[in-house]
Specification:
Elements (H helix, E strand, L loop, with lengths): L8 E3 L8 H11 L2 E4 L13 E5 L5 E3 L3 E6 L25 H5 L2
Length: 103
């Protein structure tokens, strides 16, 4: 574990891709607090992976600031991503499913 120097501001590390337990360790080492809106039991969350964070990595924040993270859904909660809904490119072909269903 790396001990962060005691400066006023710290650069937010990249939490995306880390398991919950690792994200907590990194936040502590950097002097940041970690919050998870979708996991009120953050302290007992271990193997879920961070899929989004705010503020983003690289931004300077005051030491002791809170970084909010979101996790991938655990088993039994949809078996998928965290529900991030941004536009996908390229857009679907005109006609939608009917066009795709024609052999």
């Amino acid at each position: 574990m790396r001990i962060a120097p005691r400066t006023r501001d710290v650069r937010v590390p990249r939490f995306v891709g880390l398991m919950a337990v690792d994200a907590r360790e990194v936040a502590e080492a950097e002097g940041l607090l970690l919050a998870a809106a979708d996991r009120p039991d953050l302290l007992s969350t271990v193997v879920e992976y961070v899929v989004r964070q705010y503020p983003p990595a690289g931004v300077e924040v005051p030491r002791g600031a809170t970084v909010t993270v979101w996790f991938d859904l655990a088993s039994g909660e949809g078996d998928g991503g965290a529900g991030v809904r941004e536009p996908r490119r390229p857009d679907p072909a005109p006609g939608g499913v009917q066009v795709e269903a024609i052999p």
